[in-house]
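Changelog-adjacent note: as of this version, every example in the card shows the full chain rather than a window. The one below runs 266 residues end to end.
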Amino acid sequence: ELVENLIREGFIFWQSFDIAPEGEVYAQRYHVHDYPHVGIIDPRTRRLMWKKEGWTQQNPMTAETFAEMAMDFCSRHSFDKPPQAPRPPGAAARPTKRPMHEMSEDEQVQAAMRASLQVGGGGGDDEVDEDEDEDYEMEEEEDYDDVEYLGSSADADSKPKAQEEEKPKEPSLLDQLLDMNLGDEPANGARIQIRMPDGKRTVRKFDPSQPVKAIYAFIAQTNEDTKGGKEFVLMAGFPPKDLLEDLDNTIDNCKLSGQAITVRWK
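Full-length structure tokens:
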């Protein structure tokens, strides 16, 4: 049922024998070496994006294995992004950039000097050669837009903070999820497979009339990282869709029964 729903929602299914004319063309074009064979093709470019072939009874590809592979593929590829051109054969991959915190003090100083020369103009050219040998990666700059500076506003209220009336703090979404009462798992309900970022999978039944928020609450209450305040997003379908906008919609209305949901850390 899980594989059926996954293929119906995210793929166009096509099947052929290797001795059929269409099958022979496919095997030649995509270099099929063994059977059975299953592949995923980008319909925009006709590029073979993923394949699995030659499994046996001793080493089978089960429905659960395929569902896991397909969910992982869907979580990494989306029609919302333009198709990627294949890397030319023999093309050398660019060296991996090193995070700033892994560099020595001398290397950090040199990296900062190179970055300041590029930004400050040492030379007059606006374009930067992307192939230049760089062995560092500048960490993200902190966003200070929301920082309040003392004395920065001329209209600031001079009234001492202690005398201001404190407004009650509204609970965050994570606090709401941790406090939500899920009740017992129903014997018959919407069966949903949940895949965590570490690859672990959990299957749980939910009351179809419950909001999607109940799935978020289940993850928040059963995972140690989320209990500690780590934020996450839920993706389902193909192309993968963020379920946050359907937080208050019901599981039944979102047709999540039999679906696989992928959890990603923010």
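Structural remarks: DSSP finds seven helices and seven strands in the chain.
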